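Hi support team,

I'm opening this ticket because the web form for multi-chain structure prediction keeps timing out on my end. I have pasted the exact lines I submitted so you can reproduce it. The total is 563 residues across two entries, so I didn't expect it to be a heavy job. Is there a limit I'm missing, or should I split the entries? Thanks in advance, R.K.
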Amino acid sequence: MSDMPVISIRHVCFGYDDQLILEKISLDIFPKDFILVIGPNGGGKTTLIKLILGIIKPWKGTIQFDSSIATRLGYVPQFSNFNKNFPISVFDFVLMGRSHGQNYLKRYGKEDKAATEAILNRMDLYDLRRKEMNTMSGGQVQRALIARAMVSDPLVLFLDEPTTSIDFTSQISLLEFLEDINRKMAILVITHDPTPFAATYQHIACVNKELYYHSQNELDRHTLEKLYGCPVELLGHGIPHIFLHRH
Amino acid sequence: MNIDILKYEFVQNALLASLLASIVCGLIGPFIVTKRLASISGGLSHTAFAGLGMAYWLGINPLYGASVVVILASLVIGYNEERKIDRNDLLIGILWASGVAVGLIFISLTPGFVPDLMSFLFGNILTVPDSDLKIASGLCLIVFLSVTIFYQGFVAIALDEEYALARRLPVRMLKMGLMVLIALSIVILIQVVGIILVIALLTIPVAIASELSQKFRNIMILHPDRNLQLRCRTHHFIQAGITIRRFDHSVRRPSAHSDQDDKETFPLFAQTVASMRLPVIPGQDHGSLWFFRLLCGSTSAASRNLILHLRKLLVN
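Hello R.K., no limit was hit. The queue was backed up. Here is the completed structure from your submission:
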């Protein structure tokens, strides 16, 4: 692990209207980290990612990163977020990942198109590149969203619930893909279900208004119970099932 | 087609105006439809009535009044959406109604000659003066340049606003800009089709084009995809085309009875629309079905007036 964090979040507070969602969040993301963000619904997981990406502004606190990487943060939202009413081909959709605040007035160049073709090949989407986004299946949309995030050559990749809308085999290939790109970039995954990532993750961040940060194997039942507010059974690597106690 | 008719200056102006209208509709309409801004556009066009009324009362060119009021209203709606002060549909309803009310008050306050209300509501393509044509061309140029320069940005906010924010695009500026461009387009269209039918020109051709093409850029220039090209290449100038056919129809048969004309214009229009596969669209939801009916009804009414007007001109 290198010594300098890519992104460092200090004492961030945020809420909607007058309801506090996140309180005094501090988190460092280092290059090549693999962080799982877990926590109950409404605990503020997605809000945290949106704060880091600059989609919303924090009430208090700072989120610091070098200005040069502001355009190199990849974001894979939950797939229901984009306007399905908009007619756009897979190629153009992924290509849009190349534009950012500094270059959006320029037309796309050869470099942009080459990068898009490369990532489409990598994501097994090249044959579908002329297809309309709104005619794609859930798994294909998911891959297109990842391709759009990857095409900007990110240093940190944020994925919001990447496993909810895809089947088991797609999950496996997604995991392999994430493990592979983790050699080059930091990854932060929001998930309800940490099971598939159990063998891969390095750190776990539990978000429920506050943030509890743990390295692998540090997480104990006591912290999780505090977080979810109910008894929780922990799972180990290689054990495929999770059971919740009756409560 | 009777070529003689092109000698009249008012016909030339009418054709130019419909050409300008078709350009702005092509550029802005797709954004309105895909970003679901149809009701905002309807509200804005009715707000323009307040500006028209005020300008009449002040004795200045009504288009100036309409421009100022519509741009202000678009900024208010944009600001409201940004800050979430109130529900936007509520605000649109208020602007819609109060725009018409304020316009009526000012028109009734205007001493002397009272302008024909129907020409505000349905427009009159045959009475576009040179001065208005100049304003419309200027506005059209602004719309054209802005859409070409900011195309990527507008597409980004129409497709996925949140992602555009994450990519550090100036989303707020782009949204406000789009609202102002919608306002300018409405000003251009009011002269041609009137306040009520602005929304029809901004949405229905787009709906037709979406049937013919799946590419946003093609929908903008209303150019069908390659495999569909045979169907209809000329619908870029839908409005112009319909106008020409109406002229042709009425000029060739000046002796026909007016009631008959009325009856004939409707199927003529319906046929034009049908050849562009419009009937496929109303199936989608009640809103567009309703608009389709309204459009058919008001177009046949408007064209009847147009034909009577033309006949008077030709007889004298």
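A quick check on our side: Chain B has 13 helices and no strands. Let us know if the file doesn't open in your viewer.
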